[in-house]
Structure formats: structure tokens, C-alpha cells
Amino acid sequence: MNFEEFENNARLYVVGALDEEEKEAFNIARKDFGQRAERYVQECRRLSAAFALSLRPQPPRTDAKARLMKMVQQSLQGKNGSRKSSVE
Amino acid sequence: MSKPASTDPTHGAAIVVSDEELMRGVQDEDPTALAVLYDRYSSVLKALIMRIIHNEAEADDLLQEIFMELWNHARNYSQEKGKPLGWMVTLTRRRSIDRLRKRQSYARAEERLQQQTEQQPDAWINNTVDQEIESSDLRKMLEKVISSLPPAQQQAIDLAFFKGMSQREIAAYTHIPLGTIKTRLELGLKKIADGLKGLKDEF
Questions:
Q1: Which among B135, B138, B156, B167 could disulfide-bond with B184, CB atoms 3.0 to 4.6 Å apart, if both were Cys?
Q2: Are residues B154 and B165 in the same domain?
Q3: What is the ipTM of this complex?
């Protein structure tokens, strides 16, 4: 696989269009091309973000954020509690 | 996308915190950082989930699970993986497609997709041309890039990205030769990637 083919496959990879065996070949090439390949895959992730940003935004239900933050606080308390008991 | 400003408590001045800084905050277990990321992107991510699973109640639940995953596994993010939004979108898409696959047998999904395709031959365009909804400039530009593709290329990308189908699955589903599907995807994605080059610092 030359780098141009790699670029093509990287775009297919980020949108999830590669079949399993194509993905294997892609990952081997990704390793071989090293940092250059990683930089290109990173750039391609903008494609995913672009597809999401092109959709009409849909606000979550009104109580969703409060519920999330409550769960976050609970998880923090749980962690702090287990840290405290491990110190004790 | 315009980012909501946070207020600097010491001076009362509006400051804009970057996504990267917020991710670092989440990694340091700062709930406020997560709350700002939520305000910034929950509507975008919910739109993506809805586009994949088409069920509002389930979308809200999944959105919450995704933000909890983000909170619990923020350490998995590093700047080498690209910008935070790309990482969040990748995570959201994966989880939504997992949910879709879990929920439906392949046969039922195929039947639904068939109905959706019949009802909305250009679903992507239909989703984005609602004149009553104000678009941000960025979204308008992205819409323009995407909708400039021939419908056949849009459909191939739509089936890959929003329905989680590989090239081979798209060929089988559409009864179109694999080589044609590959060409459509390659040309379509190249064109969008080229179009995004002009939006270098936007996201």
C-alpha cells in the first residue's frame, strides 16, 4: 500500500466502511508509515466531526444535565470514600 | 461552532476555554469541565445518536451513558488522538451503532432501513434543509460541502457512517457492485475532506 492508498483507506476507516480484512491491512500500513500515518488519521477524524456538526442539533431533555451531574457527584463521592478508607 | 464563554470569577470577564483544556479538566476530575463540555456538545451528540437509533428516549439515555463513559475514561483521551470533538463523535457513533445492533435483529434492521430509504431517499439533505431552524455558519458550510455530492455518494457515506455498514455490506444491501460502492465512497469522502481543508481552525 502506498501513502496515497493509505490516505484513501484512512478516510474509509474513520467512517467505518472498511471490512475486517481491509482493516487489518490498514492497521499494518498504519504501523509501517508511523507518525505520518497517525497525523493523517487524526486529520481524517475531522470527517466524523463534520458529519455530526452537519446535523441539526437536538437538545437533550431538560432534566438530563442535572441527572448526569448527580451521577458524576456520586461517582466522585464513591472514589473519595474508597480513597479515604484505603488511607485509614 | 461558537463556544459558550465561561465567566472568569475574579474579573467577571467572559473567557473561552478550549475543548483541550476542558478535557484536561475532566481528566483531573473537575465536574465543571464536564458540565461545560456537555453544554457545548450534548445537542450535537444527541443529533448524531438520533440519526442512528431514531428513538428519543433511548437517545437521551445513551447520551447520558456516553458522558459518564467520557467522565470515567477521560484518561483514554490524548491529544495524539486528535481534537476532543472528533474523539467524542467517534465514541458516540460506536456506542450508538452497538445499541442499534443490540436492539434489532439484522432482518428487522434491514426492513426498517428499507422503509427509511423509501420515505427519505435523501435523508441527509432532508435532515438539514429545515428552513425554520437557524443554522450556524459552520453547519451551513458543512451542509453545503456534503449536499454538493451526488446522491449516490451521499447514500454510500450515509450507510457507512450512520448505519455502521462496511463497503461489502453496503454492496449487498443496495445490490450494487462492490467496486462501484468503493468508488462512490472514495470520491465522496475525498471531496468532503478537500472541502474541510478550508475550515482548518473551526473544529
A1: B156
A2: yes
A3: 0.84
Q: Say whether B139 and A54 touch across the interface (CB within 8 A).
A: yes
Contact residues on chain A for B135, CB-CB shorter than 8 A? 56
Do both A70 and A51 map to the same domain?
no
Indicate which CATH number applies to the domain containing B168: 1.10.10.10
What string of DSSP letters covers A10-76? HHHHHTT---HHHHHHHHHHHHHHHHHHHHHHHHHHHHHHHHHHTSPP-PPPTTHHHHHHHHHHHHH
Q: Which residues contact B177 (CB under 8 A, 6 or more apart)?
A: B171
On whether both B90 and B162 belong to a single domain, the answer is no
Count: domains in chain B? 2
Interval B24-51: pLDDT, tens: 999 999 999 999 999 999 999 999 999 9
**Same domain flag for A41 and A62:** no
pLDDT (tens digit, 9 = 90+) per residue, B83-113? Answer: 899 999 999 999 999 998 887 655 565 666 6
Report d(CA B4, CA B7) in Å as an integer. 10
